[in-house]
User: Fold this.
Amino acid sequence: MPQSRLPKAQTSARGGIPEATVTRLPMYHRALVAMAARGVLLVSSEELAEATAVNSAKLRKDLSFLGSYGTRGVGYDVEFLLYQIARALGLTQEWPVVIVGVGNLGHALAGYPGFASRGFTVVGLFDADPRRIGEQIVVAGTSMTVRDVRELHASMHELNASIGVIATPESGAQQVCDLLVEHGVTSILNFAPVILEVPEGVDVRRVDLATELQILAFHEQRKSQLVLSETSAS
Amino acid sequence: MPQSRLPKAQTSARGGIPEATVTRLPMYHRALVAMAARGVLLVSSEELAEATAVNSAKLRKDLSFLGSYGTRGVGYDVEFLLYQIARALGLTQEWPVVIVGVGNLGHALAGYPGFASRGFTVVGLFDADPRRIGEQIVVAGTSMTVRDVRELHASMHELNASIGVIATPESGAQQVCDLLVEHGVTSILNFAPVILEVPEGVDVRRVDLATELQILAFHEQRKSQLVLSETSAS
DNA sequence: TAGATTGTTAATCGATTAACAATC
DNA sequence: TAGATTGTTAATCGATTAACAATC
Assistant:
């Protein structure tokens, strides 16, 4: 009987919500917002699952991590469930966000209507390009000025943001990241194609447009190979 | 002995590459491109793992799905491994891509240098906004004209794209999707905050900027709660 | 040979899902 | 009560990882 390796410390079971569940909560949230807007009062796990393209058993399991918010034989109260998900996600509080890099992507992010409606407030826009510094950008209805990234150091204290978005080119990303972390940012959304080095405790999520296309291309290739092999087999 | 449910059809083992591995291959590819550019000839799994922030055992396992391309006691030939990964991902062939929706995000995508270098060629830019139609955009060094999305139907045949990018607002996304699918697009990268309905066999990857921020906010909230509970415990 | 590093094994972990008891 | 739907169980699956034999 090979009695080897000790079991891990059960990190997820200590009352936490599994990471896979967390990534789906925003989908449920969005679908419920749409339903609430249509005046839907009650929803079953089957209906919500279909709206989010998720298995209904998985959906019920996901929701059960938040608590017991449904009624057997009836379903879920849309508004109530919406609130519970928003609370779990932290959308019931304000999140000041700093955006560094205001090219096309940064513009798109700054102007994205989906931010403000979820508690994210853009409190600072920075860039290194002198042609962009001083530019006025309309964020959530009010005009903001793009500031020199060299002012980041001095202004981070008053901005008090714990979330930062990096939309710079590859070259400046790590430097910007260090600066943000130095000033108390502990969550970073990174659009630059670099693996950022951050100290323990800082979360980074990377969104890479090229990576997404490459994954699609992989499956696309597989599909065409499938067609070829089926053709030659007949 | 409850002898229940039959085992599944082992879909992943039929020579395919696991999905989790596929999502990491672009990272390895990028890191290897950077190494090759620096003139590095040889790399160990340990080094490549560190550059991509991945466990080295996982890395070796990932690479083993492609074949046996390393040398024990030595490491991997950078150029050779690069080629093998590119081939597996389908980056050794041309991928014509159509972009629909040329707002800030569409602009950022069209101008992204990381596309052309990986075999993705933007062959069409479409928008519904009359103010944008006719605009010239520089894509990979050459100027392209933004066309009316109503011309999509007529021009898809000559464009011959199997990959489409949807960067429209939420409202137009499903309609655009249907149009693309109707004309042979079988892989879609969707930036609109909607779950697209597609027929069997069409792959959709959704990138949602708000979702990413929400996931960060969740963890950020958890971090601050941790600090609070530690404070009250002391 | 001695040292290094791959490729693979096997254990563990986390996520998915069908099924169903609980209960409205 | 009869019908409906949740919340949970338990089985299965896929992904991760330490360890190490194979081998350069």
Remarks:
- Chain B has a mean pLDDT of 90.
- Chain B has two domains: 2-89, 95-210.
- Residues 95-210 of chain B form a domain with the Rossmann fold fold (CATH 3.40.50.720).
- The first strand of chain B starts at residue 42 and ends at 43.
